[in-house]
Specification:
mainly beta, Immunoglobulin-like, 6-stranded antiparallel beta sheet, about 0% helix
Length: about 250
């Protein structure tokens, strides 16, 4: 099995002014399957896992380590790899640290996940906090769907101060997806949601939901809870300015 290292993303500049109280109340670290590629060759069968953490009070440096887990046999087994076993370190003083780890050469029929160990280190070099999380699975059992929001439209709503929104969802994958949740946010607040029973490969369907009149921007998210395994998880959101209100 071959492993490919990716680039670290340390987002220091934009968050350099985060106060200590906010850092102390930082949310739990995140871990997701960014992409899950299947195919007939070992090079095509790959997964990218993305982990992110935020500084807590007293943090000088943050660290994380990935481990690959094969769950295809029904029991969890760690896939040995010296490269994946190494710790990735942030620059000193950054407030947010993320790392995307790509693994290639996955086996057909495998069911893979990542376990990430997180470590917050103080100025004395000792850990002040630790955590670990496991990602959802990347299944190498055949073709996958791929869901994306392609359009948001609006027309006047039935009630004063509301709009009726139309959201187009496209499945660019090779198989159908079922139980597809679609959520709408208007001016950063949750507005409404709907569920598509099924969307076939190559099909585009429209869901219609209600919400308040948009004044700044709208955002539509498909599969917000990441319950559907897809080829790519990074194209499930469409953000745009308020759509023109049609008749």
């Amino acid at each position: 099995m071959r492993f490919r290292r990716t680039t670290t993303f340390a987002l220091a500049a934009a968050l350099a002014t985060v106060p200590a109280a906010a850092a102390h109340a930082a949310p739990r670290p995140t871990l997701k399957v960014r992409s899950c590629q299947t195919g007939p060759t070992a090079k095509q069968r790959q997964a990218t896992f993305y982990a992110r953490m935020r500084a807590v009070s007293g943090t000088s440096r943050m660290m994380m380590r990935f481990r690959l887990v094969d769950r295809s046999s029904g029991a969890r087994s760690i896939v040995p790899s010296p490269q994946l076993a190494r710790w990735h370190r942030s620059r000193p003083g950054v407030k947010t640290f993320g790392w995307a780890q790509t693994v290639t050469g996955l086996q057909t029929g495998g069911e893979y996940a990542a376990i990430v160990d997180y470590r917050w280190v103080g100025s004395n070099g000792k850990a002040i906090r630790t955590a670990h999380r496991r990602s959802s699975d990347c299944r190498q059992d055949g073709a996958l769907p791929n869901l994306t929001v392609t359009r948001i439209a609006a027309r006047p709503g039935d009630a004063l101060g509301t709009e009726a929104y139309s959201i187009d969802v496209t499945n660019n994958g090779l198989v159908a997806a079922r139980g597809v949740d679609v959520d709408l946010f208007v001016d950063d607040a949750g507005a409404d949601s709907a569920t598509l029973d099924s969307i076939a490969a190559g099909e585009t369907l429209t869901v219609r939901v209600n919400g308040p009149v948009c004044t700044r921007r709208v955002r539509a998210v498909v599969d917000r809870k990441d319950t559907i395994h897809e080829t790519t998880e990074d194209d499930n959101v469409l953000r745009t300015r308020c759509p023109s209100v049609g008749g």
